[in-house]
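Methods — Computational structure assignment.
A single polypeptide chain was analysed. Its primary sequence is given first, followed by the predicted tertiary structure written as structure tokens.
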Amino acid sequence: MLDALAARNEDLDRKYGVRLKLRIGVNTGEVIWSGPTGKAEPTVGRTVSIAQRLESTAAPNTVHAGDSTYRAARRKFEFKAAPLITITGADDLERAYELVGAKRGVGAGSERLEVPVAGGGASLQVGAERAYLLEEQRKVVTVLFADLAEPLADRLQTEVLQRVLGSYFSAVSAEIARFGGTIDKYVGDAVMAVFGAPVSHEDDAARAIHAALGIHAALRKESDAIERRFGVRLVAHIGVNTGEVVAGLLPGEVAAYTVTGDTVNTAQRIESVTPREQTYVSATTYAVARHAFVYETVPELTLKGKSAPVAAFRVIAPERRASPRAGATLIGRDAELARLYAAFRAAAAGTGTAVHVHGEAGVGKTRLVTDFLSGLPTAQRVRARANSYEEATPYALVAELVRRMFGISPADTEDAARAALAGRLGRTTADGATALLLEILGYAVVSQLDPEGKRRLVIALLRQVIRDRGRERPLVVVIEDLHWTDPTSAEVLTEVAGVVPAERCLLLSTARDAAAARWPADAIALEALDSRAAEQLIDRVAAAPIDPATRALILERTAGNPFFIEEVVRSLKDGAVASVPATVQDLLEARLDALESSPRRVAHAGAVIGRTFWERVVARVTPDLDVAPALGTLTAERLVNETARTPEHTYSFAHALVQEVAYRTQLMTNRRRTHVTVGDAYASLFEERVDEFVDTLAFHYRRGDDDPKARTWLLRAGHRAQQLYANAEAVDYFSAAIERSAEDPAARADAQEALGDVAGVLGRYDEALDRYAAAATAV
């Protein structure tokens, strides 16, 4: 490995100016392995723990071997003694040896070993029809590392250790799977999971934190029985970090999907310093999931490999509120608020009604509902929300609604939940209502009713609660994010909604589309803010005055979407708009990942072309696709808009941020290749008008990987700018041409001479002479 890396480093250094370094730890001994089961399985035991410590103490580009490996390999390899390493504590020491090299005249053993390899593993969680999601790409993901706070290998016999660790890994993997994560690898007692790859979700950071809290709870439950039998408890510490990675299948004979990047390393480093039975998250994770949990700031962490301390937060518990805490003041929604208050007044007078608010992600549905509810100090309010990770969980939204109606926390014991239900249900408990609702809430209680009987009873119970509470005071029931409702809950709530018109109740729902509410409801469509309201929101959110140029850029990138505006303004640094905020990229990546292959590829091609693109050009860039249906899908999903039909069928990305995310998620090598293809498409389609597209061709070839085409069109664009007295642009084009002309002295001389001409026009005569000299030298 070190020899292969050394050879590869020469190429990496020449192309990118970087060199890779590797530490290796090798140890020989007995391990515990579950055997080939068709999925990735952890290998654990003291042998693995020693190998991990050997690796962590090795210097870059060296190999540390344990005592057992040294004894087995010393006839073929030379070693020198290395410092002793600690394993579980100061008194637990192991010898270490540094590998010097193979002994002369002794074959090191180059036979290829055929090792059986387990199947695809937990990482490959997409079917063959969506295999395109496994292609290499850049993604924003959330990485979770969970590890046992105390090693168990030295405290338990091998067979007992296998059983105990089996319970540990089972509990951890179940919680990761429950919230849609993928297990990337097992490293000793540690588990690395990724949320957001291969499939992105809008709430991957929140999913990872929910999984972390679930792991702690599951291990506490498992530990009660394990402690009674074996005298040990399973206690983990967990680190979570969010950031950009490169995700995809590793090259080689074995299909292995993984993610790489500093985001992974930082998550592991955070986990290593997290106290037992706690979860620490990075500042990035906190920013993305700040509304979903209660946190405590901890002192900045000093992490291995980090030059500066790292901010971190301790997760305390999920946020009890159904929706985020208040943000910026509502702007530009007076008409919509007036309609909601009118609906409430009608409900309070005895004419119940349903209202459904719909609009694209980030348009402000939750903000509107929050402001509306704040103006109803005397009304009863029940606010529930569907979760994306529970779309396939029967009765998930109904369970959330029951918790909100009866004041039951997910952490409450069965006795506490039973008491809360009895306090509100009263006489109806005799018909098995309590048992049914406890079963729906996930407690170890099973109702004796058949499935249809359960459905009828839960509908009757919810209707009765609405009647009873509406008679006390006007009731507002809010159900948000209906687009994530599980089918069973959707059917139940449609039946429950039938009672609303006869009661003092307002049923208010939100979703991204109008059809999500299956019951009759007055629809309120939320559109993007107009420019005046958008500017007002920028002023409300900004911590300091924003200059006109930055303000204009924010308006262009966000297109009136309030969430995008708030997140982009918060990401301002040093007076400039930062890159796409992780909160926004998370949301938009999820929307792109939800697309089928053809629309997704067309979106990627369009993103390389630009904010606005022509159908003919996209079709030439993706010749194997029927682009018209794909563009129809992108339009229906509100990712692009059709802006013109003549003279060219033209589309624009709905938000500049959509284009940026679709562009950023593509690997640089793929983007460079596509830029050349785009340039070729323009040159071919508009061959007779090519002079009109000189700047466009220079733009794309400059960002491509074809040097001859790049320097040809950069020089043409430079000379055109020179003729138009656009001197700054000419200098930029000619300078770029020089960078791409290392193997073309004539082109380099042309660019240098042209730069001399521009310098002379600008009165910079010394510079002009230098440029002419460089041109003469080039040829």
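Note: The first strand starts at residue 23 and ends at 26.
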